[in-house]
């Protein structure tokens, strides 16, 4: 098992590294590998708004270029009263590299934690198996 609170702390820390120049909406993520490594991500915006990248994707790309392919959990932190969920694009990118049983740890400004499975957040998903049929 892993320390969910520690992973959330890392996501909160990552939030301060964001570049949310246009929305001022800071998001941090911390992705836990199967071996206990932690990769952080934060949202990085662009004046051409559609080029913005979310915290979750930054974290997963950060890990992938370091050769990591197996993950246990991701924590996401923002400055929201409600639990902050990953957007649809990030769910799909997570599904590329993570099993349906990946823990997605949501947080809010009250410091509460809610853990969902990736499969719950992205049911009936598209994947490589369809490319082979
Ligand atoms: N954002 C994330 O980084 N992750 C989410 O889960 C939701 C949205 C970012 C994208 C953009 O920089 C800002 O939040 C507002 O949408």
Walk me through the structure.
The protein has 133 residues and is an alpha+beta fold. The chain has one domain (4-124): Cytidine Deaminase, domain 2 (3-Layer(aba) Sandwich), CATH 3.40.140. Helix content is 27%, strand content 21%. It has helices spanning 4-15, 55-64, 88-97, 118-121, and strands spanning 28-33, 38-42, 71-77, 103-107, 113-117. Strands 2-1-3-4-5 form a 5-stranded mixed β-sheet. Helix 3 (88-97) links the parallel strand 3 (71-77) and strand 4 (103-107). The mean pLDDT is 98. Tetrahydrodeoxyuridine (THU) is lined by residues 20, 23, 25, 27, 43, 45, 52, 54-56, 76, 84, 86-87, 90. The site of tetrahydrodeoxyuridine has 15 residues, from helix 2.
Low-confidence stretches: none
Mean pLDDT: 98
Strand order of the largest sheet: 2-1-3-4-5
Q: Say which CATH homologous superfamily is assigned.
A: Cytidine Deaminase, domain 2
Q: What is the beta-strand fraction?
A: 15-25%
Short structural summary:
By secondary structure, the protein is an alpha+beta fold. It has one domain (4-124): Cytidine Deaminase, domain 2 (3-Layer(aba) Sandwich), CATH 3.40.140.10. 27% of the residues lie in helices and 21% in strands.
Jot down its keywords:
single chain, 133 residues, alpha+beta, Cytidine Deaminase, domain 2, five-stranded mixed sheet, globular, binds tetrahydrodeoxyuridine
Outline the fold blueprint.
Blueprint: H1 4-15, E1 28-33, E2 38-42, H2 55-64, E3 71-77, H3 88-97, E4 103-107, E5 113-117, H4 118-121
Parallel strand pairs: 3-4
Antiparallel strand pairs: 1-2, 1-3, 4-5
Residues 20, 23, 25, 27, 43, 45, 52, 54-56, 76, 84, 86-87, 90 line the site of tetrahydrodeoxyuridine.
